[in-house]
Design brief:
It is built from twelve helices and 16 strands. It has about 375 residues and is an alpha+beta fold. It has two domains: about 190 residues, no CATH class; about 120 residues, no CATH class. A hairpin with a 2-residue loop joins strand 1 and strand 2. The longest helix has 19 residues.
Length: about 375
């Protein structure tokens, strides 16, 4: 569940400046008190054997579930506060008072794919929240409850909240389009959302997209983690500039597949032998560097190597490839260079790192 009365999306004051908090009809001195109260209520509910037998209940200890939850808004298990939420925010349906009417409407589901919120995670089936906002504005009114039983990354919740504070450009676009279609202006205002999904990662994403948090504290912690990670792993992304002295930060490495010639069996590096440097495309025809036979990609045989996988603890077969090109940045300038001995040494060091306590070094042949 998400709060539906945040003054600004994702903004949240500290407990000291926030003051009293109202939640499900109860008032608390601050948000810490609210969290403590409902955490204990959830702890009590977890002791109920019937509750733990609800279909889809996660495997995990009580402490793990409580640590991941922010009750009553988000629980890492079936939410036992659902009834209270409906009681406080919904109305009993009375057919005689039903004046709801809305015509069908189509929407562009790709609208908003360039928004940073859309690109913040790689969840496979997500829809931009701005596209969903169009549907919510058309079919609901401010304060309505919106249910998404298959929440995925939680974009419906983001859209429901964002209806209260759309960007100026989005608001102008929607109002102009509705006016041109002869429709009345949309009713801006937050809707309340209930988000549900059996997937733990979906629930996690939905909660973190929609629950309020302290922006400054989050930014500081994120920066701390980035700096700590850079100290530990930053060497993996360093590369020596062609001047032999300056170090750049690697953005990506190009790997080339290796094939064998069908006539002589010689190894062929596709990048060095078949890539057109001007068009950056593989040539239709090229020659084998060993026997000079005329080749095309369809005639080549894939090369494989056998490696020991330390996670699976058994040998595996994979396509043979080698690094050939590095793209890197120095002083905001993007540069490219062919891979050198220092880069190969770094990649070898990475490949031989132990990924876990029971792993061994990867060996290929």
């Amino acid at each position: 569940m998400i709060q539906g009365q945040q003054p600004e999306l994702f903004k949240f004051k500290t407990n000291e400046s926030q003051g009293a908090v109202e939640c499900l009809g109860l008032t608390f001195g601050n948000d810490t008190a609210r969290r403590a109260y409902f955490t204990e209520k959830l702890r009590e509910k977890l002791q109920d054997p019937l509750f733990r037998h609800v279909e889809g209940f996660p495997l995990g200890s009580d402490e793990d579930i409580l640590a991941l939850s922010d009750p009553p808004y988000y629980t890492a298990c079936p939410n036992p506060f659902f009834a209270e939420f409906i009681k406080n925010h919904a109305q009993t349906y009375v057919s005689e008072n039903d004046d709801y009417h809305s015509t069908p409407m189509t929407f562009d589901l790709s609208f908003g794919k360039t928004d940073p919120l859309y690109g913040a995670n790689s969840y496979a089936t997500k829809v931009p929240h701005q596209a969903i906002m169009q549907a919510i504005l058309h079919y609901t009114r401010p304060g309505d409850v919106v249910l998404d039983g298959f929440a995925g990354s939680g974009m419906v919740g983001v859209a429901a909240q964002a209806c209260a504070h759309p960007s100026a450009a989005f608001k102008q676009t929607i109002e102009e389009e509705w006016n041109a279609a002869g429709m009345p202006a949309p009713q801006w205002g937050a809707r309340r959302a209930i988000l549900n999904d059996l997937s733990p990662i979906a629930g996690f994403l939905s909660a973190n997209y929609n629950l309020p948090f302290e922006v400054e504290a989050f930014a500081a912690e994120a920066q701390r983690i980035l700096e700590e990670t850079k100290l530990e792993l930053g060497w993996m992304y360093e590369t020596l500039h062609t001047d032999g002295q300056t170090k750049g930060q690697m953005t990506y490495t190009v790997w080339s597949e290796l094939f064998s010639c069908p006539d002589c069996g010689g190894e062929i590096d596709l990048f060095n032998q078949a890539l057109d440097p001007k068009s950056k495309r593989i040539r239709d025809e090229f020659v084998c560097p060993h026997c000079r036979a005329e080749l095309n990609r369809r005639r080549l045989n894939r090369s494989y190597e056998t490696c020991f996988d330390p996670v699976l603890a058994k040998p595996i077969q994979r396509l043979k490839r080698r690094p050939v090109l590095i793209n890197y940045v120095i002083d905001r300038s993007r540069l490219e260079k062919l891979i050198d001995e220092d880069d190969l040494a770094t990649l070898h060091r990475i490949e031989t790192l132990s990924p876990g306590p029971r792993s061994r070094h990867t060996k290929c042949r």
